[in-house]
Amino acid sequence: MDQGQIEQMMQAFGHHMVASISNLTKSLADQMTSHQEKMFAQMKPPAQTEQINTMRQATYNPRIKKFDGTRPDLVEEWLQVARRELDTAAFAPNEGMRFLYGRMAGLARAHFEANYDELVNGSWDHFCTQMRNRFIPESFAFAQQQRLVELKVTTSVQAFIIVFQRLAAQFKEEEIPEKQKVFLFINGLRTRKQLFEHLVQKKPTLLKEAIEITSNFDGKRFLSTKKFEKKFTGGDEQGSYTPMELDHIRKTSKQRNKTSCKYCKKRNHKEKDCWFKSGKYMKPNNLEKEESPLKEETEE
């Protein structure tokens, strides 16, 4: 074996060793990374960190505003938003109550602090009952119930739906049953004869169902009205068609004023069509200059 072959063998061996060391280093690095991930996973507190981070993010979420307990009409609306936030964030029961404590101020926060252990460790229904009993006086509840009974559509149907939903949400099933809410809703639309008859025919049993039927009917009525207006306005949705604009009228008027006879100086005809020039009519200014045929006969 000569010197050249020996050098080639040495180079091949060297490349093989470098490749082997590189692969070994990569394998050790992968094993270390996997080991570190497992170690960090074991060091991470179970679920608490994620819950705390979620709570911090939700605390600064503007979708739920702070409640101070000064407006009884906002209690039910605030509770509904709070329930949605808790379901979205998937809090543990006690963490959810602490989150709501952070979204309170004034009287509401003071009430929560006075009953902290009871509210934090209690159920959602217990929390809602406490909030209603403390911040919705009986006189206000009676007034709201009376308003719901007397509510009638006055402007738009959609505005009526929004107000009715807010009032109806303030009363539980044992206070105002679902059937009675449906009856009051339909009765409030009595002045809209076609819609009222449509609801009576459909016979909804749930308030949600009655609202859906009403919204669909009102939407179809709006679209049919727009089609009717488009048909009788020549396709112009902005308003009725105006055949002659003011500028056109003024222009026509000026042209009419310019058409005048150069012979008699009167308007609305030209000199070639002038009856005074043709002798059919005598100009008032020339009556004294022209001789009368009756006068000539008298002199003869």
UniProtKB/TrEMBL annotation:
User: Which species is this UniProt entry from?
Assistant: Neolecta irregularis (strain DAH-3)
Retrotransposon gag domain segment(s) = 107-191
The name of this protein is Retrotransposon gag domain-containing protein
Stored InterPro entries: Retrotrans_gag_dom
A Pfam match is: Retrotrans_gag
